[in-house]
Amino acid sequence: MLIKTDRPIMLHRKKITQKIANFWDQISEGWQMIWGPHIHHGYYDDSQFITPIKAQEKLIEKLANIVAIKSHDKILDVGCGMGGSSCYLAKKHQAIMTGITLSQKQVALATQQAQAEGLHNITFKIEDALSLKSLEDNSFDIVWSLESCEQFFDKGLFFNQAYRVLKPGGKLMLATWCSSCDEYEGKFAQEYQKLCLAFDLPYMPTIEYYRKLFTTQNFLLDFSEDWSKFVKKSWDIGVSLLNAYSFLQLIKMGGWRGFRFAKQVKLMQMAFHQNRVKYGIFVACKPR
Ligand SMILES: C[S@@+](CC[C@H](N)C(=O)[O-])C[C@H]1O[C@@H](n2cnc3c(N)ncnc32)[C@H](O)[C@@H]1O
Fold it and tell me: Is the pTM of this model over 0.85?
């Protein structure tokens, strides 16, 4: 078996979109109890002790610096999860945030979080990243996609829409899991397929694929790096936190889906440690 990582292995966009929405509806509350409000890696760069939440905020802060967020920038948080990034950027950078997700549950949790923190310039709603139907052309300073693109059925369609809604001079920030190869064969193809099916990833292209995609979609690529070595510790910590939870607690929080998810976390831990998955960071600008 040979699998190319630049094209979907799941063929029904509508079905996979619904599956992703259901998945986050079921898992988000349980996730929040175990890991807190962020659904992304943390940044670990030295031996100093840092809590997982501080490491996640550090990752956001590093990305915010590269994008050079200014006070009152209008930011679209695509695949906003439970609003972790949106609330952080609204609080620390006075950004005006719109968060979109496929999951009604996440909209509710993110809205609750913003209200609890007394944040006003922030809204959350259901919207598909591949159409951004309710959003106007040239309306955002920044499009922020933190670990959501891996679940998009068509990365090119998303880039196209991000370009449309960005103001001239606006920036797209993308932090996403990437494959280490253009194609996998035999045992590695099976591992790749298992990983994609476990995390609802229609396909997971390489860092080089994304670099080219920015250029073909008329973006100017300002920054692109592999941050795998800074983030992969997150999976070890994630697994150890999960181990502290009992079988029954996991089922109570997310049903069988919750229990299955716990097993899948170990799959990804292994993939990062074997360098089969990379963590790509990109910032690109829409020309003026
Ligand atoms: C791993 S979570 C990341 C959440 C958030 N960015 C964070 O870092 O906490 C992936 C998110 O992408 C969203 N997502 C996946 N496919 C999407 C799509 N086509 N349109 C909008 N959101 C999508 C999911 O609903 C989920 O909120």
Answer: yes
